[in-house]
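Re-run with default settings, no changes from the original entry. Doing this only to confirm the output is reproducible before filing.
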Amino acid sequence: MQKIIPHLWFDKEAQQAAEFYAQVFPNAHADTPQTLHDTPSGDAAHVSFEIAGYRFMAISAGPYFKINPSISFMLNFTETTHPHAREQINTLWEKLSEGGSVLMPLQEYDFSKWYGWVQDKYGVSWQLMLANPEGEQRPFIVPSLLFTKERTGKTQEAINFYTSIFNTSKVGMVAKYPAAAKPDPQSTVMYADFMLAGQWFAAMDGGMMHEFTFSEATSFVVSCDSQEEIDYFWGKLSAVPESEQCGWLKDKFGISWQITPSSMNKMMSEGTPEQVQRVTQAFLKMKKFDIAALESAYAGE
């Protein structure tokens, strides 16, 4: 089971984006969207979708946050797992770049024989890479964190912090910038990857003057099986008290997380409209989620 799920915040386009990804990617599908009524954003449409078995969540909840490239998704193609990898990259690139913007052109680089970075028409960023088949295999989808502005140079600290919190975690490869790599400070992280709860992530420092940094528009949902587990992650990760709301928190590096009970998915997907509305109104009043209170709201107690 995927414990950490990327969550994308859109103004009004969550369902459109989910359906687009289900059409563009092979082995992908979008679930039936669900409407949460009477939220601070009005009626908010929530939808889940999967790409090659990797789960995402998305919500249409108003123009409060905007997705940017500080968190992107690496797509690893290898010729051992994708017999026509280059052709598949070209096809997917054409679909993702239509109406979007190219961040790094699709071409050969020192680190990959075929690579490109694109922001699609919904604002989500994808890094398409022909990976080295002789290297240690990584999953098809790997979320990538880019530490910019005042957070440049924090990548190694962040990796150490996250791997100390989650079980089944480890650090993979770490490559540092050389002295000649200005404007990136020497010895900051050029590229690294690490595992949290059995899932791979990538991270790097961005010393150049990027205009974007982490925002609530892309967050990570952590599914918890008990109140004890919710309390644990909340206590470890939350560093900005004013950002605590409806199970959301922000850590000391500016990344947003949603610490949610795994039972809530069943409540929201299988409950009657009345049950879903009661649970929604209950969690809207919370900061850290209280499983017992949510279950009481579901039961109408």
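DSSP finds seven helices and 16 strands in the chain. The CA atoms of residues 210 and 251 lie 21 Å apart.
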